Automatic annotation (TrEMBL):
It is a single-pass membrane protein. InterPro entries: LapB, Rubredoxin_2, TPR-like_helical_dom_sf, TPR_rpt, Ycf3/AcsC/BcsC/TPR_MFPF. The lineage of its organism: Bacteria, Pseudomonadati, Pseudomonadota, Gammaproteobacteria, Oceanospirillales. The keyword Ligase does not apply. TPR repeats lie at residues 36-69, 219-252. NCBIfam families: PRK11788.1-5. Residues 359-386 form the LapB rubredoxin metal binding domain. Keywords: Cell inner membrane, Cell membrane, Iron, Membrane, Metal-binding, Repeat, TPR repeat, Transmembrane, Transmembrane helix. It comes from Zooshikella harenae. This is Lipopolysaccharide assembly protein B.
Length: 393
């Protein structure tokens, strides 16, 4: 056998061995990958069935199969979220910190882990660390920047740092997120409320103008500006501003009525707001408007005319508050046993009203007796409004 033939046979044997070895290695890797994928999807199935403990066991088992794979990375992310959801924030932090230390992570994976770690700190109430990590992600220019900006808005809301919240929300709007426009108006209104509390009326006006620039239909801004004009004794201007609320959001007309009446008295315009109230009653009726008009009728024409007006309105739109007002009028003009019986009835209907909420969130259904511009339950801005119907407006 010649040397060249022998050399060729050796090379062929090496090549065949290399191909067979590579094929076997790929086969083993595929088996590992298939096993890991199987474990991963079993874990997801447990999650969907809210079997958190079982899901955690499966994910930990999956990590032992191939700790450096992409699937293992996703498993670490899922495992950290599970711990955070269970309130075991420290374990979530440890997982994400160890994951962040891996040199094999690419740029996007590193940013994703930073986001998860920031969420852990946010859940733990360590806002400064969470803020720092979220800000770091926003500097990357990556597609995860939007998520980080959303989280920063939440942090600045909690800390009541309204200027920072406005700056971040402005960036979110630039991402074509119009849902942040009403939030920007509310952040400005929060600034205005703070300025009014410090009697810094000039800064309050600037904040309100900024709110109206963001959202022309922000009824809250008109309510604040009307109150500001009232406190500065610009009563006629306050009336003009408060009447705009009907065009911005008629649901909040009832919130403006008490201040409108007070402005009317201070300005001595002799029920000059009655035309506006009559328009509201016709186009968007509420019991607050009915009672305001009834009071003006009472002062002009007496209790009998006011009672007749309320009774007519109750036929069209039943209301517990309207019924109470009608009973009060009759008590004032009745004597003896009838007055006593009416007093008993008034006490019962009064309890009904006192026990009922007057505001409800249109997003989550939260109900209460106080107007919250930020819903305490679902944390949505501007969704809590006066209840309409027999028990409300």
């Amino acid at each position: 056998m010649s040397e060249s033939l022998l050399f060729g046979m050796v090379l062929t044997a090496i090549a065949v061995g290399y191909v067979l070895g590579r094929w076997d290695r790929k086969k083993r890797q595929q088996r590992v990958k298939d096993r890991l994928s199987k474990e991963y999807f079993i874990g997801l199935n447990y999650l969907l069935n809210e079997q958190t403990d079982e899901a955690i066991d499966i994910f930990i088992k999956a990590l032992e199969i191939n700790p450096d794979s992409h699937e293992a990375f996703e498993t670490c992310i899922a495992l950290g979220r599970l711990f955070c959801r269970r309130g075991e924030v420290q374990r979530a932090i440890q997982i994400h910190q160890s994951l962040l230390a891996r040199p094999s992570l690419n740029r996007r994976q590193s940013l994703q882990v930073q986001l998860e770690l920031a969420r852990d700190y946010l859940s733990a109430g360590v806002l400064d660390r969470a803020e720092s990590l979220f800000l770091e992600v926003t500097k990357s220019g990556h597609d995860l920047k939007f998520t980080a900006l959303q989280a920063l808005v939440e942090i600045y809301q909690q800390e009541k740092e309204w200027e920072e919240a406005i700056n971040i929300a402005d960036q979110l709007v630039s991402y074509d997120s119009p849902r942040y426009i009403p939030l920007l108006a509310h952040f400005c209104c929060e600034q205005a409320e703070h300025c009014i509390s410090k009697q810094d009326y000039s800064a309050a006006r600037q904040a309100i103008k900024r709110a109206m620039k963001y959202d022309k239909c922000c009824a809250r801004a008109y309510l604040i500006l009307g109150r500001l004009e009232f406190e500065q004794e610009n009563y006629k201007e306050a009336i003009k501003i408060l009447q705009q609320i009907f065009h911005q959001d008629p649901d909040f007309v009832s919130e403006s009525v008490p201040l409108l009446i007070e402005c009317d008295r201070k300005a001595k315009t002799l029920f000059g707001i009655n035309g506006y109230l009559s328009k509201c009653l016709k186009e968007y009726p509420s019991i607050s408007v009915v009672l305001a008009l009834a009071q003006s009728i009472r002062e002009k024409e007496g209790d009998k005319a006011a009672g007749k007006f309320i009774a007519e309105q109750l036929v069209q739109r039943p209301s517990l508050r309207g019924l109470n007002a009608l009973i009060d009028l009759h008590i004032a003009n009745t004597e003896g046993k009838a007055k006593k019986n009416l007093g008993l009835l008034r006490e019962l209907t009064g309890r009904l009203v006192d026990n009922k909420p007057i505001y409800r969130c249109h997003h989550c259904g939260f109900a209460g007796k106080e107007l919250h511009w930020l819903c305490p339950s679902c944390h949505q801005w501007g969704k809590v409004k006066p209840i309409r119907g027999i028990e409300g407006q």
